[in-house]
């Protein structure tokens, strides 16, 4: 029996217009362009500044562009999964709101929360629904409004993050393309190094949690850096060995865009030259669940059917993993 695979057949992204540059950031907090570029590699990041706009609005724009681009009607979508850690609200799901706002009357939908690994988790989950034959068309959204949970008085975190929305369409194929393999992991013991303390059932919102700034991202940079490099590199090297992929045969490494030094260290561990690494962190910063699809969207015209891509991510939780993706189409 021929194996069904889930192939990405279209991709689109939405970026807010507002650019927060390092120069402007240096007027808000004690930092500088030189300091940020040297340690993180980010020049600017996009922020969703319009009043009343949230993560779902960026997801909606990405989905609308995707449907138009692929000439797929909203009613044809069976399932929509949204990877995000900045939902519009705890409930209803942001995915439910995106489905409603885009007219997907036949789709069921839900959110998936795995921080910066969210897109990989959602992509593999959607792939399983395709491979089982239960769904024919699935959209995976990776979207985060990180500016809503960043303290712009904290120079250790505020230079890192940006806002963006992305969407990919998955469809079944019997060809040797699409999601080939995955290696996904989690370790809750790392949660103390990267988290948002308040807002959940353990520390519900109160005057005290607000005054103590506990509704913002907290990160222990050195611990996260060490874990991110080792975990992302280990699973990616393992994926290369398992499928006999060499640095020469790999088309691109598509890493989560958290920090330029992390990206470079992972590429070195894998033996991948810089020209084979998708990097756009300097323009957009860390958009969490949106970083990997944002790279794929920007490089779409350079990709060819059959290209081997290794997607790698690491996020709060800790969560991490890699996916071997064989690109399914040539540029238009």
User: Number of helical runs?
Assistant: 10
Order of helices and strands: EEHHEHEHEHEEEEHEHEHHHEE
Largest sheet: 5 strands, mixed
Task: Sum up the overall morphology in one term.
Answer: globular
Q: Please tally the β strands and state the result.
A: 13
Account of the protein in words:
With 332 residues, this protein is of the alpha/beta class. The chain is built from 10 helices and 13 strands. The protein has a 5-stranded mixed sheet, sandwiched between helices. A 4-stranded mixed sheet has the order 8-13-12-11, with helices on both faces. It has a two-stranded antiparallel ribbon with strand order 2-3. Strand 12 and strand 13 form a beta hairpin. Helix 3 crosses helix 4 and helix 7 runs parallel beside helix 8. It is globular and about 60 Å long. The two termini are 32 Å apart.
